[in-house]
Known about the structure:
By secondary structure, the chain is an alpha/beta fold. It has two domains: 34-65 and 321-459, Aspartate Aminotransferase, domain 1 (Alpha-Beta Complex); 74-319, Aspartate Aminotransferase, domain 2. It has helices at 5-12, 16-23, 26-35, 62-65, 74-85, 98-110, 123-138, 155-160, 164-167, 185-192, 217-228, 280-286, 304-319, 322-343, 367-379, 383-396, 420-437, 443-459, and strands spanning 41-45, 48-51, 56-59, 116-120, 142-146, 177-180, 197-202, 231-235, 259-262, 274-278, 347-353, 356-361, 398-399, 401-402, 409-412. It has a seven-stranded mixed sheet with strand order 4-10-9-8-7-5-6, sandwiched between helices. Strand 11 and strand 12 (356-361) form a beta hairpin. It is globular. InterPro entries: Aminotrans_3 (IPR005814), Aminotrans_3_PPA_site (IPR049704), Class-III_PLP-dep_AT (IPR050103), PyrdxlP-dep_Trfase (IPR015424), PyrdxlP-dep_Trfase_major (IPR015421), PyrdxlP-dep_Trfase_small (IPR015422).
Amino acid sequence: MALDIASLYTEREAERYTLHSRYLNEQMVRVLQALGYDVGFRQGQGAYLFDRNGDRYLDLLSGWGVFALGRNHPAIRDALKSVLDGDLPNLVQMDVSPLAGVLAEKLLQRAPYLQRVFFANSGAEAVEAAIKFARAATGRTRVVSCSHAFHGLTYGALSLTGDEIFQTGFGPLLPDCVKVPFNDLDALDQALKSKQVAAFVVEPIQGKGVNIPSDDYLEGAATLCRKYGTLFVADEVQTGLGRTGKFLAVEHWDVEPDMVLLAKALSGGHVPIGAVLAREWILDKVFNRMDRAVVHGSTFAKNDLAMAAGLATLDVIEREGLIDNAQRRGDRLLGAFIEIARRYEFVQSVRGKGLMIGIEFGPPRSLKLKAAWTMVEAVNAGLFCQLIAVPLFRDHKILAQVAGHGSHTIKLLPPLTLSEADCDWIEAAFDTVIADSQRVPGAVWSLGKTMIDQAMRMRAGRAP
């Protein structure tokens, strides 16, 4: 009798934290318990999660952008079933799959200035491949990225990431990696002018903070790259496939990179996949002889399940008009949050494109609120955002989180299937919680005291 995984999940669900504490990552369990996220999710459908009590939550994280189509989309499930039911000759290795060819064809139709695709298993693998390809194609070693960037946690990708908390304890990292401030063309010019830089790798919109470039930045960066012979690489792992209201975020600025990196949403939420879309000459430099046909690759890349998930994802995005939906819902939410920012002192700015939105909080003007802010932030930078995120989750059943370590920005990455009713839910919940934060003393600040006590105990090595 075949193993019933759904039944196994139900039978052992109550042990999830015990199992993870014992066998995986106890500190992650402690964080979730401290924030009150231990509700035991048992089901996911579309934009919604359901806990062990059957309560419904609106998911504004979407697995850090993986679930652009929502969870368990029937079209993705059907595509994967068709692969399994078809007994296809998967991963023969001494053959090539037609599904990989078709997916590559469809991706390149969306970026016709690129001609080749390399498939990987994740966004980080796509970044690693881009580093290797850039060095092989240019004969240079140096790679430039931006401060506050996030490109992944494997060694090459980590070397380009601009947040020290991820790097501490793992050095030395990849040599010849240089960081420049995001949105600073003069700094980029200085970094590239040596003509030793193989690639400039940049997120069109930075995920850590939802930092949006000025209108001339990406175009100017592409011009500088051409001037100095550097490859321009757009990391669209989070921004790509309609997230910002365009298929690729670079389309907002009419930029044509030499390489585009994709992952996350391309999986359909089921099978990990990454992709590097590149100019033909770049991959021709890498795979330049028959004996170098396998000079870079990955055992599970191009597997039929991943290719089917990617094909089905592109089909759903097109058939359901999800890029237009992302633009419309994003415009509505941005307008609502801008209005909220006018009414509440703690909201400093609102920024985003499509359904990638950041709400940044900061010290208010009034003395009583400023004192409360200072007290919380003195314990842990970014802790105030948890005073917003926790009641959103606990009281309004909305899952959202801070945009990065020590960040004052809450980032929204909802599924692109978001409805008008979902927008009503989001706007009402944020308005209520932010309004509550303006009342000192009040429920939000009582939560703040509790979280400060928890933080102190965790620093002392005691259980939360």
